[in-house]
Write a structure and sequence with these properties.
Layout lengths: L5 H6 L1 E5 H7 L5 E3 L4 E6 L3 E5 L2 E5 L3 E5 L4 E4 L7 E6 L1 H4 L3 H7 L11 E5 L3 H18 L1 H20 L4 H4 L5 H17 L6 H7 L4 H12 L3 H19 L4 H7 L5 H12 L8
Antiparallel strand pairs: 1-8, 2-7, 3-6, 3-8, 4-5, 4-7, 6-9
Length: about 280
């Protein structure tokens, strides 16, 4: 998030009430997950906006959000929403943990936010506030272990709401890992970097290897995913902002509107003005 708590920075894990985070953020409701994985325990109904897309989440649900995502919290008070943030280095202790982090909970290819129901509100409050605080005061190692176990339980419970077809997909784990890392980097850099070589270099693999992986996992080339991302962000900006096409093209990293128009025309067959 934009203002990182000391605990999150020091040990890679933090749980806080939403109203506390908003206060810490100078009462701003806009955050970015940065490199962190986030789980929101929603005990009061709230409207969210993630990457300019609106979501309505009713009380009694848990929401999972991956790294490098922009989230804006609606007008709910926030006293009954718990925000859990943790780094990959904090959580990953085994191949099973890596599999959980690279799962559809945090990298769902259909939606930025994966939402699953839960039933016991009081239990959530006890586990993530009272017990966590007791462990924190007693010993940091106990606190870290308790946090890891609590996160794992939330993830396992949410797995019950992923379809069997999705769970049984035959995806090579190393491919999944690289493709998900590529998606994180793309979310971070798409405005300034539109070449496959940049992302492949960041991942220490060749462009050809990255494309092989994206085609295996997503059925699309790495270049195609980059183009799709830029076009998608353009459509979102048209729908959810008052920016002009010229302003959007500049925000997306194009030197002038003509270059952007040529890009859109080449990849969609339409002029930008025809996509409103």
């Amino acid at each position: 998030m934009y203002i990182i708590t000391d605990q999150l920075q020091n040990i890679g894990f933090n749980v806080n009430r939403l109203d506390h985070l908003i206060k810490r953020n100078h009462f701003g409701r806009k955050f970015n997950t940065l490199e962190y994985y986030c789980i929101y325990i929603i005990m009061e109904t709230i409207d969210l906006e993630i990457e300019n897309m609106p979501y309505h989440v009713r009380a009694g649900h848990i929401a999972f959000l991956g790294p490098q995502k922009q989230i804006v919290f609606g007008k709910a008070n926030g006293q009954h929403i718990l925000c859990i943030a943790f780094s990959a280095s904090f959580y990953e202790r085994s191949s099973k943990d890596s599999l959980f982090l690279n799962s559809q909970l945090f990298f769902n290819y259909h939606t930025d936010l994966f939402v699953a129901p839960f039933t016991n509100t009081e239990h959530m409050k006890v586990v993530f506030m009272e017990r966590m605080e007791a462990f924190r005061e007693k010993d940091e190692n106990l606190y870290v272990s308790a946090a890891h176990n609590a996160i794992e339980r939330l993830i396992l419970d949410a797995f019950l709401y992923i379809s069997n077809e999705e769970l049984k997909k035959d995806v090579k784990f190393d491919y999944l890992h690289y493709v998900n890392r590529f998606k994180i980097l793309l979310q971070r850099d798409y405005k300034k970097e539109k070449k496959v070589a940049h992302y492949a270099s960041e991942l220490n693999i060749t462009s050809r290897r990255l494309t092989e992986m994206t085609e295996y996992v997503l059925g699309k080339t790495a270049k195609g995913i980059i183009i799709e991302k830029v076009i998608s962000e353009f459509k979102r900006a048209l729908s959810f902002t008052n920016f002009t096409i010229s302003e959007i093209s500049y925000d997306l990293g194009f030197s002038d509107e003509d270059n952007f128009s040529n890009f859109v025309k080449k990849h969609t067959g339409k002029n930008p003005s025809e996509m409103k």
